[in-house]
UniProtKB/TrEMBL annotation:
Species of origin: Ottowia cancrivicina
Matches recorded under SUPFAM superfamilies: HAD-like
Pathway(s) of this molecule: Organic acid metabolism; glycolate biosynthesis; glycolate from 2-phosphoglycolate: step 1/1
Name of the protein this chain belongs to: Phosphoglycolate phosphatase
This enzyme's EC code(s): 3.1.3.18
InterPro entries xrefs: HAD-like_hydrolase_sf, HAD-like_sf, HAD-SF_hydro_IA, HAD_sf, PGP-like_dom2, PGPase_prok
One BP term from GO: DNA repair
Amino acid sequence: MPAPIQAVMLDCDGTLVDTLGDFDAALNAMLRQMRRPRIEREQIARFVGRGTEHLLRCVLALQDGGAMPDEATFNQAWAAYLQAYEQVNGTHSRLYPGVREGLAALQAQGLPLACLTNKPQAFARELMRRLGLAPFFRFIHGGDTFARKKPDPLPLLETCRLLGAPPAATLMVGDSRNDAQAARAAGCPVFLLPYGYNYGCPVEQEGADAVLPDLPAIAKRLQAA
Ligand SMILES: O=C(O)COP(=O)(O)O
Ligand SMILES: [Mg+2]
């Protein structure tokens, strides 16, 4: 770790919260409404992490032999999905083990924290509130907060600026190559957790500064540094 860490940004889906149950419920409600076949969780997990547009395009293309949806189909899916997700948000989600303790340990070290996800901001804020995590974060930023989303470095750079810490001293904690690529491009150090959604690939190959088992292990590593 080149510079002492002054602030931490944490991804949401696959890092803090196992949201696969919410994605499952909302996507299958959308597909039902569109009179399409259902999709299984294992398949959904491979599409999570690059935001809602990407998720919907992947699901529809999978069902249509790889053909991307036309605008009307996409717009229908988008409206149905957002409505369904808003209804289920948090109902079928659970925190990964150690998340609350890990966030408390980071906070106890005096580190300002931000949640930085590709989920729409309104859904992310409501989810954090429902799970009781909102008070840990100075900012909760989503995929629609800035002009571009991860793996673009922009949301990380903007969040660092708001946190008042230089990118080189702001740690990104995530579960996927989007987080690693965005962090690299922003000049932020990055730790990955192995239990989330990384397109079905092991996170060890994503070039992170470290892969650690859970959030408490990350807090311990920062304290020891
Ligand atoms: O793709 C999403 O909707 C959320 O993904 P993230 O929380 O891992 O950024
Ligand atoms: Mg993630």
